[in-house]
Amino acid sequence: MAASTLEAMHGPVRCPHGCSILPPDLLRRIARNGNRRQREAALDTLGLDHTLRASRATLELLGGPARRGLFGLAGAIKQRTVYDADHTETLPGRVVRSEGAAAGGDVEVNEAYDGLGATFDFFAQAYDRNSIDDAGLHLDATVHYGQRYDNAFWNGRQMVFGDGDDDLFNRFTISLDVIGHELTHGVTGDEAQLVYLGQAGALNESLSDVFGSLVKQYVRRQTAEQADWLIGEGLFTAKVHGVALRSMKAPGSAFDDPVLGRDPQPANMSGYVRTSADNGGVHTNSGIPNHAFYLVAVALGGYAWEKAGRIWYDTLRDRRLKPTATFRQFARLCVQNAEHAFGAHERDAVTAAWSEVGVAADA
């Protein structure tokens, strides 16, 4: 069903409970192929995700984020709070660390706190953005959510992290790019409101991968050549045959496992997956724009957030970017923003990268 038709029936298709990092089709494969313990964890996560989708819809009806921050003369001010759900499904939970408090003995609390801060600092320092909404939004997170919950998500107001099942998945605070990915869904929702369906949905997921990876690169001070370009590095336990959830450098190569299956992401439009699952394959087809960004970053060299990231960020904020944008429409805006911000060399690099993944970006 076309995005425009679906929107006419139900309104804009938004991220289900904030676009969780694990796609439902991956959890379904575990439910089919895993042992009893793995199947139970996957089914429990899928069931809870379904409940959270309904909660997300209610949250949207009640209004957006309420905890706005401050933007003073000194610039953006971080305001973080980490909560502990104590393995319940009640949000936000009890406060365990507030802004400026010292680290404690709970690694998940510390990783969540640091990840929120790293993402805030990246957007503030690289793009002069004041938090997720560019208006000083408090960054809150809940850890130890649920029992063996295999996911992490941004629900429109805060981050939520499961502990994983300690069988296939480690704790979901372990990966900085996952934290950056999920918070970027908030940025995309604030700026472009890309519908979560088909190519627009895949762009939504790709933008989160792009800036999630850039947050990690920024913290590590890595150039495009030095970066691993992996999303979800560290999430898998040693039992899984794989290195991450996705690879921007080589989509389709991140994992090949008897339980999880094989990484389904294409790197080129020739492999575009047409499906009704996962809102039209948003987590799968995002490999195509992901790879385009990787190609641009490597072609331009240096720190990827300085040129490639700036081009993508300017395109995300471009008022011409429609909620139902296709890959080609997004690519054309990238080309125009590259030339506007930098010049002909950068324009040509962006055009070539999109062409390599099978998307015509000519004006």
Secondary structure topology:
Elements: H1 3-10, H2 24-33, H3 36-62, E1 71-72, E2 75-76, E3 80-84, E4 94-98, H4 107-127, E5 139-143, E6 152-154, E7 159-161, H5 176-191, H6 198-220, E8 230-231, E9 246-247, E10 256-257, E11 261-262, H7 278-285, H8 287-300, H9 308-316, H10 327-341, H11 344-356
Parallel strand pairs: 3-5, 5-7
Antiparallel strand pairs: 1-2, 3-4, 6-7, 8-9, 10-11
Helix pairs in contact: 2-3, 4-5, 4-6, 5-6, 6-7, 6-8, 8-11, 9-10, 10-11
List keywords for this structure.
5-stranded mixed β-sheet, 11 strands, single chain, 363 residues, 2 domains, 11 helices, two-stranded antiparallel sheet, alpha+beta, disordered N terminus, Neutral Protease, domain 2, globular, Elastase, domain 1
Explain what this protein looks like in three dimensions:
- This protein is an alpha+beta fold and 363 residues long.
- Helix content is 45%, strand content 9%.
- The protein is built from eleven helices and eleven strands.
- It has two domains: 17-190, Elastase, domain 1 (Roll); 198-356, Orthogonal Bundle (Neutral Protease, domain 2), CATH 1.10.390.10.
- Mean pLDDT is 90; it is low at 1-12, 57-66 and 70-74.
- The chain has a five-stranded mixed β-sheet, with helices on one face.
- A hairpin with a 2-residue loop joins strand 1 and strand 2.
- The chain has helices spanning 3-10, 24-33, 36-62, 107-127, 176-191, 198-220, 278-285, 287-300, 308-316, 327-341, 344-356; strands spanning 71-72, 75-76, 80-84, 94-98, 139-143, 152-154, 159-161, 230-231, 246-247, 256-257, 261-262.
